[in-house]
Write a structure and sequence with these properties.
Serine Threonine Protein Phosphatase 5, Tetratricopeptide repeat; mainly alpha; 2 domains; 8 helices; 0% strand
């Protein structure tokens, strides 16, 4: 799941180290801002940084805090749904996407993210087609469809690789 799993390139290691360094500094700033003045936006911002650093459990905790402060914020539910998905908590992801859609019925992303959680997260697991799932997801990962979908494919394929 880590960025180190990506194919190597001459400048790739330096770029990843630089990105992680920037994210580590941004995380420290976000933490200081939350400590000074807790806000739903602050928790969501820190969750975004944590997610980029593959710290999904921490991102989930921050999104829980954001939702507690702003329970009608549809975007927070969408982001929390993503984190549930990355932690292979598919039913929780679906519940958050459903809540996001109920709060913002015209929001397109919640609809397709929900569909991905249903299809990728549950279908292949429930039908026992592990090899087909891994092949499909690795192909999507290689093509880097869009950033979110690439990350979904990568995370889910890694989870399936670890299953007995």
């Amino acid at each position: 799941m880590a960025l180190a799993d990506e194919p190597a390139s001459p400048s790739g290691d330096a770029t990843r180290q630089s990105a992680n360094s920037v994210d580590d500094r941004a995380l420290a700033v976000a933490t200081a801002l939350i400590k000074a003045q807790p806000s739903a936006e602050g928790y969501q911002h820190r969750a975004m940084i944590e997610s980029r650093l593959d710290r999904h459990a921490e991102a989930l905790a921050d999104l829980d805090a954001a939702i507690k402060l702003a329970p009608q914020d549809a975007a927070a539910y969408a982001r929390r749904g993503d984190e549930h998905f990355f932690l292979a908590r598919f039913k929780d992801a679906l519940a958050d996407y459903d809540r996001q859609i109920s709060l913002a019925p015209d929001s397109g992303p919640g609809h397709w993210q929900r569909g991905i959680a249903c299809y990728v997260g549950l279908y292949y697991d429930m039908t026992g087609k592990k090899e087909l799932a891994i092949s499909h997801l690795r192909d999507a990962e290689r093509h880097r469809i869009d950033h979110f979908m690439w990350q979904v494919a990568r995370v889910h394929a890694d989870l399936l690789d670890k299953k007995p």
